[in-house]
Amino acid sequence: MTLNSSFTSFENPWKSDLISDSVKQIYELVNYVVFCNILSVFGILSNIINIIVFCRQGLNSTVNISFLAMAVSDFCSFVTLLWFNVCVNPLFVNSDVPMDSSEVQHLTGGFPHNCFMRITCWITVYITAER
Questions:
Q1: What digits encode the pLDDT tens for the residues 114-130?
Q2: Which of 20, 29, 54, 111 has the fewest Cβ atoms within 10 Å of its own Cβ atom?
Q3: Quick check: 72 and 51 in contact, CB under 8 A?
């Protein structure tokens, strides 16, 4: 019986895989390629419709301007989310593209998406305070 033992950072004595690698790959493929892309495309199309409607109504009131700004911010957020889903796609990651997809996805998809989501939140706060 060993009472004083040390483990390196690469060893984990309690490691147990909950799911296998093939199940994980199928899960990622279904979630990122199918569900997230469908939701992203739906969000992009609905925000384009919102932008057109608010522009046709005119930008006379501050509420229309705020809702237009929110639609533009959401549109940009969904575009970056769609790109993030392309970069996370296992078929793209395992292709022979000469780049590290995880770095590209975070720099060009993750950080801008978070920025646009925070802008949307602050516009929501502004609309709430305005009313």
A1: 999 999 999 999 999 98
A2: 20
A3: yes
82-92 pLDDT, tens digit per residue, is 998 888 887 77
For 9, which DSSP code?
A: T
CA angle 71, 73, 74 (to 5 degrees): 65
pLDDT of 75 higher than 90:
yes
Inter-residue contact 80 to 113 (CB < 8 Å): yes
**Nearest residue to 124 (alpha-carbon basis) of 64, 70, 75:** 70
The backbone torsions φ and ψ at residue 97, rounded to the nearest 5 degrees and listed phi first, read -75, 130
Give the residue carrying structure tokens 């301007």: 65
* 15 secondary structure, DSSP code: -
Candidates 32, 52, 33; CA nearest to 44 is 52
